[in-house]
Amino acid sequence: MHISVIGTGYVGLVTGACFAEFGVNVTCMDNDAKRIARLEKGDVPFYEPGITELVAKGLKENRLSFTTDIAKAVDKALVIFIAVGTPPKEDGSADLSFVEEVGRGIARYMTGYKVIVTKSTVPVGTGEAIRAVIKKTQQEPIRFDIVSNPEFLREGSAIEDFMRPNRVVIGADSDQAVAIMKDLYRPLYLIETPFVVTDVPTAELIKYASNAFLATKISFINEIANLCEKVGANVQMVAKGMGLDHRIGSKFLHAGPGFGGSCFPKDLAALIQTGERNGLPMQIASAASRVNQNQLRQMVKKIREATGDVAGKTLAMLGLSFKPNTNDLREAPALALGQELLAAGAAVRVYDPAALEEACRALPKLQACRDAYHAAEGADALIIVTEWNQFRNLDFERLKSVMRRPLLLDLRNVYDPQRVAAAGFRHVSVGRPPLD
Ligand code: NAD
């Protein structure tokens, strides 16, 4: 089978490279010529564990190719995945202009039956809108089917998530399209991946409902963490006690600076918009979003209280990407925190294993450092914002010898407070009672 993937960002490239690994012939198309030129040489423009090797293999074995030409991408493919961005508009609704542009492109060049699949996260009703765009643009009526196949991969473990998903959702209203999609995903059938086959609007909503639910879990535990701080309870034990209940589960119950990334904030906003448009306020999603915005303010307050006043202080921030194992800075809490701290008059030294250069381009006043210890030099506080593994076992003696004051703000609750105190540090974390 020959397929195409339009849009070679995190989702598109992982989708293309993984299907090539499954033995499918894949053409990846993007309108960013620089990106395609790099990819043709096997140079992946973002950090994601394992993707460079997978792209190299696909290229070498001639199952993966790249183009900027949509005609080429449409021509050979039976299945065309749309994996372009759907960024938020000012009112929170999803900007579908890229998706629609791709729809028009497909319509212009298709000469036979196609299965057109949205991988991008798109609001309920978009499948129908794409169908309308294609029909309107087609010169002559050529048959096609629309499928919604939302993607649930997580950056940082994207390949594993794609190859071993918890489930595959296929929304379609044609048996032929469902059969083709199942054939494409056959390798996952062999490992007994559950398939949810449904209609297009339901599939579209499954994605938003899933992300909103996960975001709600994070906001919920963050709110509980703030209450723990008031009443002297320990949020980690609360989360453990909750999570052992199988009806609740332990995932996404880690208190911290709040969620960021390219998905949760924007998908919550889009779901809230969909609710508004349908006269049904999404009250829980709205609360999750508000709590998340407040959580960042809580972190700034925490840093201010621990350091006295941040003006004139030197602060070292470890971890800038929105989560470990990615260089993605979209809606990263670290950038918002950095901005606040710089505006309040602090000097901010930063280190991140993958997102350093880009973060310093976004906020040029950040001082880029070589590693955690370099960042800590002369610092009044060390702040762990993103829990990369390399920050989980820091040498506190070495840190103490270079810092102005031994203060650790552990915004991800990475460290055991006793251990940090024993190393002579003051330790401030999230939702856990201080030792002093
Ligand atoms: P991205 O910004 O990394 O990539 C989008 C790509 O689309 C870019 O390379 C861009 O140049 C290209 N593009 C834009 N318009 C185009 C056009 N007209 N023709 C060809 N290419 C075009 O985005 P992403 O993070 O991969 O997300 C893509 C979609 O998948 C979004 O809807 C997102 O919500 C969803 N999603 C993302 C994740 C994630 O973890 N990043 C997970 C699940 C779903």
From TrEMBL:
InterPro entries: 6-PGluconate_DH-like_C_sf (IPR008927), NAD(P)-bd_dom_sf (IPR036291), UDP-Glc/GDP-Man (IPR017476), UDP-Glc/GDP-Man_DH_C (IPR014027), UDP-Glc/GDP-Man_DH_C_sf (IPR036220), UDP-Glc/GDP-Man_DH_dimer (IPR014026), UDP-Glc/GDP-Man_DH_N (IPR001732), UDPglc_DH_bac (IPR028357). NAD(+) binds at residues 30, 35, 86, 121, 155, 266, 330. Substrate binds at residues 152-155, 207, 252-256, 260, 323. The gene is udg. Its EC number is 1.1.1.22. It comes from Nitrospira moscoviensis. SUPFAM superfamilies: 6-phosphogluconate dehydrogenase C-terminal domain-like (SSF48179), NAD(P)-binding Rossmann-fold domains (SSF51735), UDP-glucose/GDP-mannose dehydrogenase C-terminal domain (SSF52413). GO terms for molecular function: NAD binding; UDP-glucose 6-dehydrogenase activity. Keywords: NAD, Oxidoreductase. GO terms for biological process: polysaccharide biosynthetic process; UDP-glucuronate biosynthetic process. The active site is at residue 263. Residues 316-417 form the UDP-glucose/GDP-mannose dehydrogenase C-terminal domain. The keyword Hydrolase does not apply. This is UDP-glucose 6-dehydrogenase. Pathway: Nucleotide-sugar biosynthesis; UDP-alpha-D-glucuronate biosynthesis; UDP-alpha-D-glucuronate from UDP-alpha-D-glucose: step 1/1. The keyword Oxidoreductase applies.
